[in-house]
Amino acid sequence: MCGGGNAALCAAIEARRAGATVILLERGPQHMRGGNTRHTRDIRLAHDAPNAAADGAYGEDEFYADLLRVTGGETNDVLARLTIRESATLADWMARQGVRWQKPLTGTLSLARTNGFFLGGGKHLVNTYYDTAQRLGVEVRYGATVRAFELDGDRVASVIYERFDREHRVACGAAVIAAGGFEADVDWLREYWGDAADRFTIRGTPYNTGVALKALYDAGAKRVGDPRGLHSVAVDARAPRFDGGIVTRIDSIPFGIVVNAAGERFYDEGEDLWPKRYAIWGKLIADQPGQAAYAIFDAKAAGRFIPSAFRPLSAASIGELARQLDLDANVLTATVERFNASISAGGEVRMDRLDGRSTSGLMPPKSNWAQRIDSAPYYAYPLRPGVTFTYLGVEVDADARVSTSEGGGFENVFAAGECMAGNILTRGYLAGLGLTIGATFGRIAGVGAAQYARA
Ligand SMILES: Cc1cc2nc3c(=O)[nH]c(=O)nc-3n(C[C@H](O)[C@H](O)[C@H](O)COP(=O)(O)OP(=O)(O)OC[C@H]3O[C@@H](n4cnc5c(N)ncnc54)[C@H](O)[C@@H]3O)c2cc1C
Fold it and tell me: Ligand 1 centroid to 324 CA: how many Å?
């Protein structure tokens, strides 16, 4: 197994249960194990009736329709349907590995019916899977960076990895690659994003630099996914460059306005419900000058959204707020005045639905929740694009077997998780789908690799 997050652990557990000897090579040290999975909280699950993880029913057809909506219909139908079908078995499977479910969520995230939240979040999920895997006899080698695959025709014969500055070779009957995307390699991102990449914040692990993905390409694996494709959200510009996780995300956007470094608005902050729109804001900010933006709101909005790890800047006037943000005070004041003048209705906005309270005559408009910014103190968050993961990966079939660029596939190389999610998720995102794809293909890859190795 190459990798140590959700996909690799699901694969390791299933491979071991299918009777294989399993070595898991995790690049991170033990205290950083688990990749981006450490930061997760929930997984998307189809179900016909309420269960321990989720409320109501979320049928396979509805799940599929949601996927088609976010990908614009571009998905590998066979793999997408397989993922959705398998997701219906995951709540029980995860519980059998020791995962415990939170009560279905209440509040503004609107995910109680579609997503299960595991108790203790991603760290606990990772710890539970490692405990189970090791109890079953999986050998874990931390600090092991997989760098190359040695081939014998269309078979991988051995894996080359680096550990404690020494190169090692391990012979294998089969290999599962589950080493995430390449979002933490800023040089690689720069190939598609230019210098803008230097101002991206990477929300997850610094270890997902795509080293194993490159090794797969070198071995002849077929690429899939848009190399420029990123899942990215608005994060606080004061967040650490890597691994800030969930708490650096800024959710104030629909409650106010967002301006760029010139002090001008550039997109409809009230286009749709926030769970359906938060994931476009990283890209929107990436396209602004200097990859910088500022979320502005007033006292009426304070405390109404999920707080982040950072306190907003605050001031008694918009001009003073602008000076703290290093923006032109006259321009920002004029932007806020224009925004306020375009709103006729007063009173509280309703955030639990599209309330249709829009600006009039303003470009770009704010289509819902338009409320004047007129109550001191005024607040602001400085924003940057926060990259969650990349979409580029390798093509796989329904057995999780990696395709070769020559046509056909490797006999004994399997992939799972973020490094193959681009087969299904070509763009856009559905909350919790990353883990669903990883668990589905991790389990399939683990069983397939074990069967091949033992044959
Ligand atoms: C802040 C944040 C919150 C998120 N929240 C959710 C959520 O709630 N639900 C959801 O479904 N998704 C969420 N995601 C996305 C989710 O993290 C991924 O879809 C999922 O965890 C990917 O699992 P994976 O096993 O493919 O990769 P990862 O969990 O990232 O694991 C990759 C592993 O590979 C290792 N590795 C990398 N290179 C090598 C190498 N060369 N050799 C050996 N090992 C290597 C890494 O150390 C790491 O252990 C979130 C992501 C972030 C950043």
Answer: 36
